């Protein structure tokens, strides 16, 4: 093949009173005919006046130059620093009065950012940049911090992310403490924190899904500056990158008991399991089913309680040990027919391309106790049959996955046959016959993407991504130059992961310990690969 080459609150107040508040008077309606109203409402009066000092009141009033609607004030209004109480408000045709139930703190500068709370009644044009700044002391704080928030894995800007400055302390946790100053990002991911007092802070951004101002470790994305920042003196325009980083502790699993099996379902995926039975003679066969389910099998039809100590390691390399009583349900008349059918998944599926280096993965829903390799047929059409040795078959520790790998000399389609009875499970049932027909990969229908990783000081992973959804298509570890061969024509992206802890995967860090996620660098732009092309020069150069 000849390849053509080319270079390629309490805060604030994010409490929930939902809905659009209408005036006590008659609703205003849009006039018919004439030019469309494109002019947003303008503030004509504020109480207190903007930039007021020595303010001691609890009432804030705003008046506009036209009739307005108020759109979800409790969600739109951001008050910083966070207030201790709450507020009520009363609407008027051209304004609003807000009454707070507690005094503001002494000698503190407050910012009330109303965002898009006020809209005219004709075309719903939002009033722009409606902010009220006042101080309960003799001067206004004036420090400011601007930056951006992006998704770590895609580098897309994040809209409406909560950005907070937290007062630095030894006990600070984003999951336990609310931010002292806060704002929200705009549609470009930009944020602007204003009128702040001098001090030492922690800076973080999160997608506050439940609007409680706390970081919910199981559901929300977070990003943070790795070090405390001191104001004044901090001159960066920080770029915070958010990602999911679930560090909630592993919990005692749910149990599912039948006459044939006893399953433990853990809330988080597992990568290693160790089981120690209290009595050796009580030992049971077990397997990790999928990623979070540990299943014990009742081969001897026992109804006695078996005790075991189980240690599991989750995807964050954290160990969790618990004691477990394992008791199978007593077998009834219906249990003879309740055995789950064995499920089998193969990769590649029939019809998908195979390479000269034949690779086939078979996943089973139960451990396989008997395998007859003599029944396996791998052949070119119906003519040439390949003989496999024991080394060509690799089982995982639970015998629920079989990998077959062998260099072939075929020129045409590859036919794979595993007759019924080739695989017998721990429950005595057999997998149905597996028949696959896979065309041999035509090199001229594929292309190559290559490049170098320069100035890297740690282990690394180069990931080839689908451009549409950023899913990992392939990855290469610790190779420079790197080459992705036999890539189908299409549109892709490249991403570099700095694998600092050398565990072969990206780690999300630990926000409560202020450990940042491992760095990720996205190659700029999309890579459009045509069949029979080689795209060179897709280089990552670290500074």
Plain-language structure description:
It is a single chain. The chain has 543 residues and is mainly β. The protein folds into five domains: 20-135, Immunoglobulin-like (Sandwich), CATH 2.60.40; 143-244, Sandwich (Immunoglobulin-like), CATH 2.60.40.1120; 254-332, Immunoglobulin-like, CATH 2.60.40; 344-441, Immunoglobulin-like; 444-541, Immunoglobulin-like. Helix content is 1%, strand content 44%. The strands form twelve sheets. Strands 12, 13, 14, 15, 16, 17, 18 and 19 form an eight-stranded mixed beta sheet that branches. Strands 39, 40, 42, 43 and 44 form a five-stranded antiparallel beta sheet that branches. A hairpin with a 3-residue loop joins strand 20 (254-257) and strand 21 (261-265).
Looking at CATH, which topology of the largest domain would you report?
A: Immunoglobulin-like
Query: From the coordinates shown, what is the CATH architecture of the largest domain?
Result: Sandwich
What integer value in Å does the Rg equal?
Answer: 31 Å
What class would the helix/strand composition place it in?
mainly beta
Helical residue percent? under 10%
